[in-house]
Amino acid sequence: MFVGREADLEELSRLWRKRVASLVTCRGRRRIGKSTLIEEFARRSGARFLKLEGKAPEPGMSNKVQLATFLEQLRRQTKTRVRSLANWSEAFAALDAELDAAKTVVLLDEISWMGKYDVGFPGELKIAWDNLFKKHDRTIVFLCGSVSTWIAKNILNNTGFVGRASCNFVVRELPLDACVKFWGRKAARTATRDIVDVLSVTGGVPRYLEEIDPSLSADENVRRMCFLPQALLRDDFTKIFNVVFGENAVTKRTILEHLSECPLTVAEIAEALGVERSGTISTHLEDLEVAGFVSEDAGLVPGTDRTPKQMRYRVCDNYTRFFLKYIQPNARTIDSGSFRFNALETLKGWETMLGLQFENLVIANLPRLLPALGMGNVLLKSAAPYRQSATRRRKGCQIDLLLQADRKVCVVEIKRRATIGREVIDEVESKVRSLSLPAGVSVRTALVYEGTLAKSVEAEGYFDALVPVESLMYGSEKELAFGRR
Questions:
Q1: Cβ neighbours of residue 312 closer than 8 Å, sequence gap 6 or more
Q2: d(CA 267, CA 277)
Q3: pTM to 2 decimals?
Q4: Distance of alpha carbon 145 from alpha carbon 151, whole angstroms
Q5: Mean pLDDT of 112-135
Q6: b/e map of 104-129 (b: 16 or more CB within 10 Å)?
Q7: d(Cα 248, Cα 242) in Å, to the nearest integer?
Q8: Which residues of 127-278 form beta strands (DSSP E)?
Q9: DSSP, residue by residue, 237-276
């Protein structure tokens, strides 16, 4: 099934309004649906679609094998009479010979695998674009891959490609209202908490959402997807991580393991690793960020245009954190077929971790959240979690999401509890009082929640906005009414 991505498809459709060919880089974590999106874009455009995919690295792989794979795929999709390829110059010429004046989408998929065994590959691709592909003004060429670091290094940051890419497209997780569609008509009869608990494990990753059985509870869905020897999510992290980083995976994985506990600064990561703080750690973090595992909470110091002296990094991929916290430590028991748990709540530290998972879901849905907060048309300077360290003159505080605009900040508390009582007002008020702000900056407060909200919270009128997570999950009032539990 293809759901969501309407804004992405609309953005891509603008490329057809140009009178020249387009070169587009497309990045995103594995399983996020990059290839599916591009194919759907071609289908809706009524364009001819050619997909040429690099072959996954394996023992014995070589540039010769990649060229043979390229030709085999080209022959299946066109009438080319080429029988062999000696190099990438010949490969791209063979592809160009099959392009004409018709509307065409070309997808060079897993391009990092395609060019892995020839250091001259980026240069040959640049020459092919300049002298061949760009002359077909009704053609869009997508360079797509899960190894985003390769695309960044060899295409985006390659001086030879400067000014050539029409769009650097990043495919992100599906928004909550699209995720709910994987429950189909049963969504209206499924408790919000059941849906949120599953999404806290999968995030908005389409390939994982396809595994959901809407007839089952959240506990049973997670058991089937994660805690059986043959389950997709039992070892998908390892497959993805090794493919993306290869021999450079060990230190990056260790960094992720530390970040899965809580967000950390570069200095704190260095201390956890037992090494000196250096640019190497920053490079690892940049690679993890580009690959979609980690996010830098790049907010501003409240009420200013200054960035904090030390940025914090957090695991932004929900499945990654779930794997590191619950699947990896129990791998042997799972593989023996004897892992058992009564419910998600019985997993050690589940409620604490779920707070981080739920925050990720909400922050990833910021475009849908802002209108609900009455800030849909406000020009934001920054939107990120914020932590203020304690000093002699001020108290410390940790804010789930801090939105900053000109002379205004909004302190957003993100809460998932069975019952949310009046104590949440005291919690947020304490943070607001501790927050160091210059004079003339007004403060708004908001609560985004999943659970039963005590009547006293709404009656007291402390929060400027109360946003049940259902309002981010369901489109119409009718769906919202059915979806609330």
A1: 263, 264, 265, 296, 297, 385, 387
A2: 6
A3: 0.90
A4: 7
A5: 95
A6: bbbbbbbbbbbbbbbeebbebbbebb
A7: 9
A8: 139-145, 167-170, 264-265
A9: HHHHHHHHHGGGHHHHHHHHHHHTTS-EEHHHHHHHHTS-
What does the alpha-carbon distance between residue 51 and residue 150 come to, in Å, rounded to a whole number?
19
Residue 310, SS3 per DSSP: coil
Return the closest-CA partner of residue 435 out of 404, 406, 460.
404
- Identify the three-state secondary structure at position 210: coil
pLDDT tens digits along 399-451: 999 999 999 999 999 999 999 999 999 999 999 999 999 899 999 999 999 99
With tokens 């119409």, the residue in question is: 476
309: left (phi over 0), alpha (psi -120 to 50) or beta: alpha
- Backbone region of residue 56 per phi and psi (left: phi > 0; alpha: psi in -120 to 50; beta: other values): beta
Q: Each residue of 68-94: pLDDT tens digit?
A: 999 999 999 999 999 999 999 999 999
Q: In what order do the strands lie in the sheet with 264-265?
A: 264-265, 312-315, 294-296
Tokens of 202: 């999968």
Who's near 460: CB < 8 A, 6+ residues apart?
Answer: 422, 425
pLDDT tens per residue across span 318-339: 999 999 999 999 999 999 999 9
Which residues neighbour 103 within 8 Å (Cβ) at sequence distance 6 or greater?
A: 16, 45, 46, 47, 48, 138, 139
Residue with token string 């999401």: 401
Distance between CA atoms of 183 and 166, rounded to whole angstroms? Answer: 36
| Tokens 């430590």 found at | 329
Q: Is the pLDDT of residue 477 over 70?
A: no
